[in-house]
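Chain and backbone:
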Amino acid sequence: MKKNKKIVQPVSGTKVPRFAGPSTFARLPELRDVETCDVAIVGIPFDAGTSYRPGARFGPQSIRQASRHLRTNYHPNYDTEPFVEQQVADAGDITCNPFNINEAIKQIEVGALDLLNKVGGIISLGGDHTIAFPLLKAVNKINKGPVALVHFDAHLDTWDTYFGAPYTHGTPFRRAREENLFLDNASMHVGIRGPLYSRDDLKNDESFGFKIIHCDEFQSQGIDKIVERIRNRVGNNPLYLSIDIDVLDP
């Protein structure tokens, strides 16, 4: 970030009530309203890859609505003012074809790549986990090669197909492995819990290069140790961070 550049901050709840004002994430400025942008928030309203419950397509707008309640000025735990130190803006949503998964995957990749060419980095709001595959493809093109992948989730998401379908919320990292999108010596799952389909699930996952931190290990080792393990695994490699909400809520 350039020093002394003008930062457009979120609309404060002390000046405009939280039920009013812009409908952007955390009431941030829109991307078109800032000179430069360090981090862009982008919605990806796609859920055609779900195997059980649909509705994640409404995730971006729901997250934005909930984010109205954020006090964005100061974080006392870390003694930081994130929206003062970085220019963050809302870039709207990437349009995804809800009837054609192959086309939607291409749209997500192209949309993310276009955005990454304009800003320092992006935070995407899903959407089901299918979106991780095209996002990784876009990041690889910017990075000119594979990146470290840290995946917070209750599930592995490295299965091959569901009912013969290759692109689903449970298969993005299998497709990513096939295209060599992540570093097999610097990637891991964090928070895995619960039963699997078979023992082969773990064997296959290990063959793809993942290390696993299970949910129970948070209890036995504590957060500081888990953070140390993640840092040691990733090293100084460029990182793609993926967070599936069921790592917190099944």
